[in-house]
Specification:
heterodimer, A: alpha/beta, Aminopeptidase, OB fold (Dihydrolipoamide Acetyltransferase, E2P), 13-stranded mixed beta sheet, 17 strands, 22% helix, B: alpha/beta, 2 domains, 9-stranded mixed beta sheet, 5-stranded antiparallel beta sheet, 6 helices, globular, binds zinc ion
């Protein structure tokens, strides 16, 4: 059943509406387990569009296997998805820095609060993000801060390639995931692919993981395809490669591929002069799990990440 | 006046973005004034440019006290100003959420790190800043409630209001917060506008800084004594929200005295021209903040009022 959980009037004949599809085939819903799949907080991250579709499609194909509730929120930032804008189009603010929101705040803070209220009571929330529009990522769960330990058993079931513990970015307390975890709703962030696109094999991999978790939680009784165990990594095992010069980046290696020390990853070139400004090589052996796709670079831009110490 | 370069950004197709510090006098790093970190802070840049003009003259007349040094950085984020965007770079980063930064990460982190290296040891730090909501303010000094805030120092600017607010998690990335962490007494100054120049409040801003520098024994200057500031806590402001969206017709401006039950604004139906909603003052008070754009969404804050103090 599709419901509008928050709506606000826009100036001319339109509402900004956040919708949720509740999939449930039981009469009495009170004691049922509940999983939420949330996406589209950042409007340029569209991998979650396929994941939401595929979860809903597989459930609709076999409603008899669903013994709990699955809530699907494909677009928390519907205007952003419409405009391929990471931020909220009206204010330019990052919705994922506004949680838990406030009933007394401005319009978007009220919407953030409504989303939180709707998710309270969920047994597991999966917040699907793509990578940004700049780099490609393999399917991964990122765990950080005080909730990492509690979420690890769930994360291991997600059929991702990597669980990245304590991801370098400081724990942003105003994210949906952090706010929900603080309020007792176990939430994990899944990240995959690249902004403004859909990688269906990666999407299917994560969807298999979602059904695997639901199976373990007793919400899904259907058969689950075989899943893999992820590599678990901490920050110390991730080698960041950043640009030290401005120019145009050309990848010269394959994403999601093992590289050896000294192997060429890409080049930074000067289109005007037809010259290579830098050759960027791997500093360590490992899995090239992040690779830049977006060409224009400044000093400091992320070009690649290598996961080392994998057995 | 001495000019030095704090940081330079190189770009493939744009000229370098140079962040420059203008210093006056020699000796103890007494006061540092920082202009736009965001591309919409045009008024803030204007105020800083006028300050440089005034300090140049004071220096020529030997009115900078011996052993004191003042620095003004009239603009940080000129790249965004020149293209009419609020945030920095292709990934739209808010530089005033990127502090304290580092020397090895993304470019925005390197910019604010270089800035902190340069300005982190001043005794007093003054930032001409902007609020996340677009609109007009009563000129004021904004301080964070860190336990170390000193409102009596803030009073010395002689602006009508000093506002103390509780830092939210997101505020830890601001210049103000990190200045305080570096033991600088930090103040954020707000004049009326951002995108547009408001001459009157701009000269109020310039006068406030010169008055403060004089009272701290940093310059010799004949100044008007200014206002006796009214100190208020942000949570004590009354927020007035819209119930409908449409065209905004404001009937009150910052500084106006409003009475309980009187109309503050009208929301006009954008297609039929009739009044959809009349917004009524919920209390007697003074308008501290007013929405100014032509359009408004449902639920947004249109006014923030200071309760009138009854003698
Ligand atoms: Zn995201």
């Amino acid at each position: 059943m599709i419901e509008t959980i928050a709506s606000l009037e826009l100036p001319v004949g339109e509402h900004l509406a956040i919708r949720r599809n509740r999939l449930c085939y039981k009469e009495d819903t009170k004691s049922l387990g509940r999983v939420a799949v949330v996406s589209g907080t950042h409007g340029d991250e569209l991998e979650g569009q396929y994941i939401c579709y595929e979860v809903a499609r597989r459930i609709a194909a076999h409603p008899e296997y669903l013994t709990g509730i699955v809530d699907i929120y494909p677009a928390l930032n519907p205007l952003g998805v419409d405009l391929a804008s990471k931020a909220l189009p009206i204010t330019g603010m990052d919705l994922n820095r506004m949680f838990p929101g406030s009933r007394e705040g401005n319009a978007m803070e009220q919407i953030a609060a409504a989303v939180m209220e709707d998710l309270i009571g969920t047994d597991l929330c999966i917040d699907v993000h793509s990578s940004d529009i700049f780099v490609q990522e393999i399917p991964q769960v990122r765990l950080s801060g005080e909730f990492a330990g509690r979420m690890l058993p769930f994360a291991k079931l997600m059929n991702v390639d990597v669980i990245w513990m304590n991801a370098t970015a400081t724990v942003h307390e105003a994210t949906l995931a952090h706010s929900l975890n603080t309020m007792g709703v176990p939430t994990m962030v899944v990240e995959l692919g690249q902004g403004n696109s859909i990688n269906m094999p990666y999407g299917n991999q994560v969807v298999d993981g979602i059904f695997n978790v639901m199976h373990e939680m007793g919400i899904w009784t259907g058969e689950v395809p075989p899943t893999q165990l992820p590599a678990i990594s901490s920050d110390g095992k991730v080698e960041f490669i950043r640009s030290d010069v401005e120019g145009i980046f050309l990848p010269r290696n394959k994403h999601n591929h093992f590289v050896c020390v000294g192997e060429l990853i890409g080049e930074i070139v000067d289109p005007m002069a037809g010259q290579v400004k830098r050759q960027v090589a791997a500093g360590k052996d490992g899995l090239l799990f992040t690779l830049r796709n977006y060409p224009v670079v400044y000093e400091g831009d992320l070009l690649a990440r290598i996961l080392t110490g994998i057995v | 006046m001495h000019i030095h370069e704090i940081y330079t950004v190189h770009s493939t197709y744009r000229e370098d973005m140079k962040i420059r510090g203008y210093t006056f006098g020699q000796g103890e790093k007494s006061a540092c004034i920082v202009g736009p970190l965001r591309g919409n802070e045009i008024q803030q840049m204007y105020v800083c440019s006028q300050l440089i003009r005034a300090l140049k003259e004071l220096e020529a007349n030997s009115c900078i006290c011996t052993g004191k040094q003042i620095q003004v950085i009239p603009v940080v984020n000129s790249y965004s100003i020149n293209v009419g965007r609020r945030f920095y770079g292709v990934d739209n980063v808010d530089l005033n959420r990127a502090f304290p930064g580092n020397s090895y990460g993304e470019q925005d982190r390197r910019i604010v790190h270089a800035l902190m290296e340069d300005i982190g040891s001043y005794v007093y730090g003054i930032q001409f800043a902007s609020f996340y909501m677009d609109g007009e303010f009563m000129p004021h000094v904004r301080m964070m409630e860190t336990g170390y805030q000193n409102t009596s120092l803030a009073n010395l600017f002689g602006l009508p209001y000093v506002v103390v607010h509780k830092p939210a998690p997101i505020d830890t990335g601001t210049l103000n917060y990190n200045w305080q962490a570096a033991n600088t007494a930090a103040f954020s100054l707000f004049t009326r506008t951002n995108w547009e120049i408001d001459e009157r409040s701009a000269s109020q801003g310039v006068a406030a800084v010169l008055r403060f520098l004089k009272r701290m024994g940093i310059i010799r200057y004949d100044s008007h004594s200014g206002y006796i500031s009214h100190v208020l806590y942000e949570q004590d402001l009354s927020d007035v929200h819209t119930g409908r969206a449409g065209i905004f017709r404001g009937l009150a401006r910052p500084g106006d005295d409003v009475r309980y039950g009187r109309p503050l604004a009208e929301i006009i139906d954008p297609q039929e021209g009739v009044v959809r909603e009349t917004i009524i003052a919920p209390t007697d008070g003074i308008v501290f903040f007013a929405h100014t754009k032509a359009l408004i969404n449902q639920g947004d804050i249109v006014y923030r009022l200071v309760h009138r103090l009854h003698e």
